[in-house]
């Protein structure tokens, strides 16, 4: 059986990361149909985009107004993101988000669960944290919010996980290095950046499989 390893650098507050995840999900569905004997492993590696944010975060609207310069620039940026999200099957209303959180504790929690949970539980937490921020407008930098989220995961004891969320600990950073996000690395060889269309990701995966097959043939 042929194996593919996909490493994904991401941050929970990046809408392009959520869009990229949806596109990757579609690409993997396509790959499962065309190459059913291929085993795929996906590792999600956290990158904190805004480590300089205060621990309690900042008001979302104020943050983006200062970052982009005007309310109109913010509106145009949000419209662009929401159009891209819709093409991936997502309905996002960024104007309703209240807080730009510091994601250090969210990444710490994700890393702790990663060492204790099974893949299904980790996938559930990833989806829940994305949904918490973009859909439920939760402050995922808040410890109490993270407590509520992690207690919803079946089969995990929340106390040992949450006791490790100490501010003095450095947040988890991707082993992929300081990359822009989302970033997709296939078998540590092929690098793709940004919220790639599902077709582009699927093509890259198929090309990697073809390259692996060619290398195997040469070794025979």
Automatic annotation (TrEMBL):
Pfam families: DSBA. One of its GO terms (molecular function) is oxidoreductase activity. InterPro entries: DSBA-like_thioredoxin_dom (IPR001853), Thioredoxin-like_sf (IPR036249). Residues 5-205 form the DSBA-like thioredoxin domain. SUPFAM superfamilies: Thioredoxin-like. Signal peptide: none annotated. This is DsbA family oxidoreductase.
């Amino acid at each position: 059986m042929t194996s593919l390893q996909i490493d994904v650098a991401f941050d929970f507050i990046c809408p392009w990361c959520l869009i990229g995840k949806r596109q990757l999900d579609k690409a993997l569905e396509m790959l499962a149909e065309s190459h059913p004997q291929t085993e795929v492993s996906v590792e999600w590696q956290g990158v904190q985009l805004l480590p300089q944010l205060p621990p309690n975060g900042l008001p979302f609207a104020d943050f983006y107004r200062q970052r982009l310069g005007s309310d109109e620039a913010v509106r145009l940026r949000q419209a662009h993101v929401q159009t891209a999200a819709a093409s991936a099957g997502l309905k996002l209303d960024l104007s309703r988000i209240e807080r730009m959180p510091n994601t250090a504790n969210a990444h710490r929690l994700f890393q702790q669960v990663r060492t204790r949970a099974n893949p299904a539980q980790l996938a559930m937490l990833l989806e829940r944290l994305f949904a918490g921020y973009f859909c439920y407008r939760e402050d995922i930098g808040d410890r109490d919010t993270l407590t509520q989220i992690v207690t919803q995961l079946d089969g995990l004891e929340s106390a040992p996980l949450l006791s490790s969320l100490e501010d003095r600990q450095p947040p988890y950073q991707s082993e992929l290095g300081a990359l822009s996000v989302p970033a997709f690395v296939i078998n540590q060889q092929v690098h793709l950046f940004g919220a790639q269309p599902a077709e582009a990701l699927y093509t890259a995966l198929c090309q990697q499989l073809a390259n692996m097959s060619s290398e195997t043939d040469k070794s025979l």
